Amino acid sequence: MAWVNRFRIDASASPYHVEPMSSILFISNTAFFTPPLIILLAMIIDALVGDPKWLYRGVPHPVVLLGKLISVLESGFNKSIESNRRRFIAGVQSSAIVIAVAAIAGYVIAALCQIIPAGMIILALLASSLIAWRGLYAHVRDVMVGLNTSLEEGREAISHIVGRDPESLDESAISRAAIESLAENFSDGTVAPIFWFAVLGLPGLCAYKAINTLDSMIGHRNGRYEYFGKAAARIDDAVNYIPARLTGFLIVIAACLVRGANAKNAFKAMFRDAPRHRSFNAGWPEAAMAGALGIALAGPRIYDGVEVPDHWMNEAGVRMAGPDDISRALLLYRVAGGLIMALLLGLAFAIYSFS
């Protein structure tokens, strides 16, 4: 990257004044803006090393810390003896506390990184822990490898990424569940974090991870969380609205570049079926993935022994899926991740060109 050290002439200043390109592409003057190349670096770090187990055996992962804070607040404020209204208000207050703590922590860290040597590199390293591109790929690949070994191995692997009863799943159901998880969590774990990182800097990224963790822990429709977690679930719907739809389009574009994938069908399935999905946002990447692969995803599922109805995404697609289909989905996932990197690189040079 020798070009990083080149210089550009500032026409508005003295004819003898030059400004380092690095000051435009790598440096930020506010905690709420992160240069695209630093976001790209964070994604590359995650793609290369993910979340090293050796590191997080001794240091708690940021999401683990968020989870502990949520657990403390939930146990302290979510009392079954309270009225539904009080539980809802307590949930709003608890969610606000968690989001504010995360955003303030992100702001302080970003501000510190602006004033210390190699601070933006440190920021990229820290931010990479909040992107889950490699981790999701590894988990879904484990399902594929497990199914190639035995049905039991596949059930064990799928139990780590979905909440369904694995004993009720055959090879086809396990494969579909893995692909659905890949599509949905591509949005939650990669596209949305990078989107909010780009829009609001590290404070935005940290706030998003807090919201997403709140939703995963308390955003459930059951007796315990129906009211306490309602605000968290609705906020999560809101912050994922744009990223979920961007994810769908990324999958469609990736399908244009992958032999055997059907981009036209992905596009049609996304607009036809996504609004019918039981999830406000998950249908967009799931429908796009289903159409691209020519298989049917979603549909009725069993959670805790109870069948939960849902519409099929790409209902006309094949419902018999297997490890080969997971492999095809992982290829689309890798290409879509490459598209994000290319977009960040293009954005960096667009900023440089117009600055």
Automatic annotation (TrEMBL):
Localization, per the record, is:
Cell membrane
Q: Which organism is it from?
A: Sneathiella sedimenti
- One Pfam annotation, family name? CobD_Cbib
Query: Where are the membrane-spanning stretches?
Result: 24-49, 88-109, 115-133, 191-211, 242-261, 331-354
Keyword terms: Cell membrane, Cobalamin biosynthesis, Membrane, Transmembrane, Transmembrane helix
Name of the protein this chain belongs to: Cobalamin biosynthesis protein CobD
Function (record text): Converts cobyric acid to cobinamide by the addition of aminopropanol on the F carboxylic group.
Instruction: Give yes or no: UniProt keyword ATP-binding.
Output: no
Pathway(s) it belongs to: Cofactor biosynthesis; adenosylcobalamin biosynthesis
- Indicate the secretion signal residues: none
Q: Which family does it belong to?
A: Belongs to the CobD/CbiB family.
Under InterPro entries, the record lists: Cobalamin_biosynth_CobD/CbiB
Query: How would you describe this protein's topology in the membrane?
Result: Multi-pass membrane protein
